[in-house]
Amino acid sequence: MHPTDALPANEPYVIADCDARGVVRLTLNRPRQFNALSEEMLSALQTELDAAAADPQVRVVVIAGRGKAFCAGHDLKQMRANPSQEYYEELFARCSQMMLTIQRMPQPVIARVHGIATAAGCQLVATCDLAVASEDATFAVSGINVGLFCSTPAVALSRNIGRKAAFEMLVTGDRIDARTAQALGLVNRVVPAADLDAEVQRLIDAIIARPAEAIAIGKSLFYRQIEMGIADAYQLAGETMACNMMEPCAQEGIDAFIEKRSPAWASGKHTT
């Protein structure tokens, strides 16, 4: 959470870059405000995520922050300048929609985390499918420190880590370090700051080496089944695996395994 400060007119709120391998890097570009999720930042991020989700050439999305921090949560000064429940409900609905977009898009989304990731910034880390953090990263759902329980961050946080650990973070507002975040399951990998980009790249390479169709099918199933009872989850998983078995990528992969050769997948594209 950090007060607002306008950017120069020619500076985008999110810097978007896509390389030849289909890796989209979205960099939150509000460094003086620790990349707070203002209305403008949310809109810019939503636009870029929608574009990436709709592009079959995109294989992986990486979300990072420019400057000293990953993301410090919502913009409190902007929020206080609009003191109405209707405004707040709309703001949190927009933020929730952006978070849901990350989980519903077919490509894996990786959080590249350095510095602080607090409140909705911690929620963003928890929402991303994968997260790699530098050793200097810290995490908190710190709204309670200003009298605001982090209700929307609680949704993502409680689906990543155990209930008691999540509730302790929510009611104390205390920060945890990167190694603790990894032990709790909030991030996948922790490395020295100098190795952060290389570690993110290793994860990207591992994903791109697998068929995009299977990953897209699996990501959809993963988030749908996790909200179901176990019997319904198994039913959906079985149906999903049966459909996946009919995909050319699975047929080629299994044939290659039987024939003791490397698979020759026809396309690196996902289907929308």
Description:
The chain has two domains: 14-208, 2-enoyl-CoA Hydratase, Chain A, domain 1 (Alpha-Beta Complex); 212-258, Lyase 2-enoyl-coa Hydratase, Chain  A, domain 2 (Orthogonal Bundle), CATH 1.10.12.10. The protein has eleven helices and nine strands. It has helices at residues 39-54, 76-80, 85-104, 120-127, 151-157, 163-172, 178-184, 196-208, 212-225, 230-245, 248-258, and strands spanning 14-18, 23-28, 60-65, 109-113, 116-118, 130-134, 138-140, 176-177, 189-191. It has a six-stranded mixed sheet, with helices on both faces. Strands 5-7-8 form a three-stranded mixed sheet. Helix 1 (39-54) links the parallel strand 2 and strand 3. It is globular and about 65 Å long. The model is unreliable at 1-5 (pLDDT under 50).
Outline:
By secondary structure, this protein is of the alpha/beta class. Helix content is 47%, strand content 14%.
Secondary-structure element pattern, one letter each: EEHEHHEEHEEHHEHEHHHH
Extract low-pLDDT stretches: 1-5
Shape: globular
Query: How many domain modules?
Result: 2
Q: Please give the radius of gyration in angstroms.
A: 19 Å
Beta percentage is 5-15%
N-C termini distance: 35 Å
CATH superfamily of the largest domain: 2-enoyl-CoA Hydratase, Chain A, domain 1
Helix content: 40-55%
CATH class of the largest domain: Alpha Beta
The CATH architecture classification of the largest domain is Alpha-Beta Complex
Strand order in the sheet with the most strands: 1-2-3-4-6-9
Structural class estimated from helices and strands:
alpha/beta
Mean pLDDT: 92
